[in-house]
């Protein structure tokens, strides 16, 4: 196998450390190097983490619905539900309740959304690590966390565009989000279908595409957009 599904015992703790810490550490790096919203993003991260406790607890209730069906194409749907639909769906609902989607259309809205989502997903990472503790694998401990990390900076870009466009034009961005998550689910599933090489290719492609999308948005200055609520610049 190109990528062993089961790790050696010596590397187990290192992989769990990556799974648990990659999301918050990546957020801190982004906040230090690219964010322009000051201390507000750290408060938003904390708010997301608090809401993530509730979201992750709710996810545990529906987790049995997405138990892996090994050796079947249904494994794709299991991964889609457990690692993308439920975490990002509940996180989006938490953001809507705690912050409100209109906030995304304002200056600094994207950075705050990334902070909130990273905070919430950090709790999902803890939950996933605990639930997979007795049956660890490099896919759960490394591949999926990498793709979720990349999703965390790309997802708010499409969510922001959906909010600015409004209904029904937002549907195109929602469809792209779902297709992207399904693509990531297929990539993760391929490692368990003896197609590791294709899983690696798809994982790298998905991660690179998300990172490019997110970084381009992070480096772009907020401008007034007639679709959103940012006020036009004044003299």
Helix and strand topology:
Elements: H1 9-33, H2 40-62, H3 74-98, H4 109-131, H5 138-165, H6 171-190, H7 196-219
Helix pairs in contact: 1-4, 1-5, 2-3, 2-4, 3-4, 3-6, 4-5, 5-6, 5-7, 6-7
Would you give an account of this structure?
- The protein is mainly alpha-helical and 235 residues long.
- It contains seven helices and no strands.
- The chain has helices at residues 9-33, 40-62, 74-98, 109-131, 138-165, 171-190, 196-219.
- Helix 1 runs parallel beside helix 5 (138-165) and helix 2 (40-62) packs across helix 3.
- It is globular, with a radius of gyration of 18 Å.
- The protein starts with 8 loop residues before the first helix and ends in a 16-residue tail after the last helix.
- Residues 1-8 and 223-235 have low confidence and may be disordered.
Strand content: under 5%
DSSP strand count? 0
In terms of quaternary structure, what is this? single chain
Low-confidence stretches: 1-8, 223-235
Overall residue-averaged pLDDT value: 82
Q: Tell me the distance between the termini.
A: 63 Å
The total count of helices amounts to 7
The chain-level structural class is mainly alpha
General shape: globular
Helix content: over 70%
Order of helices and strands: HHHHHHH
Largest sheet: none
Radius of gyration: 18 Å
Key words describing this protein structure:
disordered N terminus, 7 helices
State the gist of this model.
The chain has 235 residues and is mostly helical. The protein has 7 helices and no strands. Residues 1-8 and 223-235 have low confidence and may be disordered.
């Amino acid at each position: 196998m190109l990528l062993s599904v089961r790790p050696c015992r010596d590397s187990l703790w290192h992989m769990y450390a990556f799974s648990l810490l990659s999301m918050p550490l990546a957020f801190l790096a982004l906040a230090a190097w690219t964010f322009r919203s000051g201390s507000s993003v750290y408060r938003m991260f904390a708010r997301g983490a608090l809401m993530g406790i509730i979201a992750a607890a709710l996810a545990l209730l529906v987790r049995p619905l997405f138990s892996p069906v090994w050796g079947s194409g249904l494994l794709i749907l299991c991964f889609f539900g457990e690692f993308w639909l439920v975490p990002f769906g509940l996180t989006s609902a938490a953001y809507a309740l705690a912050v409100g989607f209109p906030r995304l259309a304002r200056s600094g809205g994207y950075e705050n959304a990334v902070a909130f989502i990273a905070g919430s997903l950090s709790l999902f990472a803890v939950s996933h690590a605990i639930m997979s503790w007795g049956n660890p694998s490099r896919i759960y401990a490394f591949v999926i966390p990498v793709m979720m990390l990349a999703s965390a900076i790309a997802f708010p870009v499409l969510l922001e565009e959906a909010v600015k466009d409004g209904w029904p034009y937002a549907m195109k961005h929602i469809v792209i989000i779902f297709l992207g998550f399904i693509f990531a689910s297929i990539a993760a599933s391929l490692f368990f279908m003896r197609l590791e090489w294709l899983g690696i290719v798809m994982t790298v492609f998905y991660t690179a595409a998300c990172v490019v999308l997110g970084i381009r948005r992070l480096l772009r200055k907020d401008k007034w957009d007639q679709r959103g609520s940012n006020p036009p610049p004044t003299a």
